[in-house]
Design a protein that fits this description.
By secondary structure, the protein is of the alpha/beta class. It has helices at 20-30, 37-49, 53-60, 67-83, 94-108, 117-126, 139-148, 171-179, 193-201; strands at 4-7, 14-17, 110-113, 130-135, 157-160, 186-190, 206-210, 227-229.
């Protein structure tokens, strides 16, 4: 019997709106430049799989960086995404255009909970389930979003790489220790086959991979045999 559910955060509990791979093509269209959503998405996936050297170290440590350094990293990361596009532009200076794109992304985007999250968390608490967040992100942003939604107190703990082990995969043992439950009594839900799939599976924790609509998948393994859901409502079939 499942007594505890742990959730990844990004692309599981929360998402960035507007979605970058939809937002950037719309911004470019304002300047008369045609780049499709699929083209930009493929560029973004390629970048994530082949990060420039100046981003690699901070990407792996992102969850432990202070807020100002995280914001600077996001600007540089989005600049790298823009640089991946082969832009030709006859209007304003190309450098100015790229800087404008990065600034628009930074000023406009915000992280919010998916529409199904609050209802699902309330239902799980009614079923007397222990609930955790287990994320590779930073704790302060997660805590702030959950507090604003009025559900922070529903979680036993926010397990993040700045509070516990700097590698997300190492924190599944933390989940076992804090919950004091057997692995077969825990279900972890996340979007990343590597950290949310094979990571908990090494500890014999049950896994669900979530693939939400319009979700960008950076890493996948066609040979994985994890159960997949498209929204959190479907998790109740596995309890």
């Amino acid at each position: 019997m499942i007594k505890c559910i742990s959730f990844d955060f990004d692309r599981t509990i929360s998402h960035v709106t507007p979605l970058t791979h939809h937002f950037v093509p719309k911004l470019l269209a304002q300047k008369g430049i045609n780049v499709s959503v699929d083209q930009f998405m493929q560029h973004s996936i390629s970048l994530r799989r082949n990060l420039p050297e100046h981003l690699v170290d901070r990407f792996s440590k992102y969850g432990t960086l202070p807020k100002a350094e995280r914001e600077q990293f996001l600007k540089e990361y989005n600049r790298a995404r823009v640089d991946m596009i082969d832009l030709t532009y006859s209007g304003d200076d190309l450098e100015e255009l790229k800087n404008w794109l990065v600034e628009q992304i930074f000023l406009t985007q915000q992280k919010i909970l998916y529409d199904d999250v609050v209802e699902i968390i309330i239902r799980l608490k009614q079923l007397d389930k222990k609930i955790y967040i287990l994320s590779g992100n930073h704790s302060d942003g997660i805590t702030e979003i959950l507090k604003q939604a009025g559900i922070l107190d529903s979680f036993e703990e926010i397990i993040t790489v700045d509070k516990y082990h700097p590698e997300k995969i190492d924190n599944y043992q933390v989940l076992l220790d804090l919950s004091q439950l057997k692995p077969e009594e825990i279900l972890h839900i996340g979007d990343d086959v590597i950290t949310d799939g094979f990571g908990p599976k090494k500890h014999n924790i049950n896994v669900l991979i979530i693939r939400r609509e319009k979700q960008m998948v950076f890493f996948d393994d066609p040979n994985h045999n994890f159960q997949t859901i498209s929204n959190l409502q479907e998790l109740f079939s596995f309890l």
